[in-house]
Amino acid sequence: MKKWACVIGLSFGMAACNGAKAPENATTDTTGTGGTAANAPISAATSTPAAPVAPVSRFAEVTIPSGTTLSLSLASAVGSDTSNVEQPVRATLRSPVTINGHEALPAGSEVTGVVTEADRSGRVKGRARLAMRFNSLKANGETYDIRTSGFAQEAAATKKKDAEKIAIGAGAGAALGAILGGGGGAAKGAAIGGAGGTGVVLATKGKEIHLGPGAAITTRLTAPLTVRIPS
Predict the structure, then answer these.
(1) N or C: which end of the chain has fewer CB within 10 A?
(2) Considering just the CA atoms, what is the radius of gyration of the chain in Å?
(3) E-only strand ranges, 44-183
């Protein structure tokens, strides 16, 4: 009896152990189809597309030799009696500069500089004078320092017109003297008229120089200039 009791008790114990493990076996995925979130495949809709590659700009360098003439059109108004030294001046290139078949500087390129001299005209002597020099150039989106010969203009001499004024005064005085006092009166009248003409000349200033937007001027490079152009 004791032997059978031990067998029966052992059977019940094994059954109890098998019953406790059943839920664990029930939750185990033996087919391999369950998986986890970490093992789930990545959806094509959620993947980030590659960014487009920007095109690379290509440039070539061209050297403009010293002595090259730059034909400019003023964009600023300047004058011998209205401008001051160091006053900024702007201009644009009227025609392109071409080197070995390449357009190194297109028309419309901006050139900037300053007034270097602004002298008013004098009453007795001294003609009006205006000068400027350009030191910077902008072309194809690039800015360059440049060295130029500058531009200068001087008012025309008025000696001929001054002599005419004196002569007219002397002639008028002589005619009036002759009418009033004969030959002697003519000589005196000429002297008086000439003096009057000289006084008019001394009281009259010479012409000033005025250059407005659109005025055509030229300058030259005094040093080589290397620029970048689209290739």
Answers:
(1) N
(2) 49
(3) 59-64, 69-74, 78-79, 88-93, 97-99, 102-105, 110-119, 129-139, 142-145, 151-154
Say whether domain 59-156+208-230 belongs to CATH 3.30.450.40.
Answer: no
The pLDDT tens digits along the chain (231 residues) read 454 544 455 554 454 445 444 444 444 454 444 445 455 555 555 566 667 766 656 889 999 999 999 999 999 999 999 999 999 999 999 999 999 999 999 999 999 999 999 999 875 457 899 999 999 999 999 999 999 999 999 998 755 554 554 455 545 545 545 555 555 555 554 555 545 544 443 444 579 999 999 999 999 999 999 999 987
Residues linked to residue 66 through DSSP beta bridges, in sequence order: none
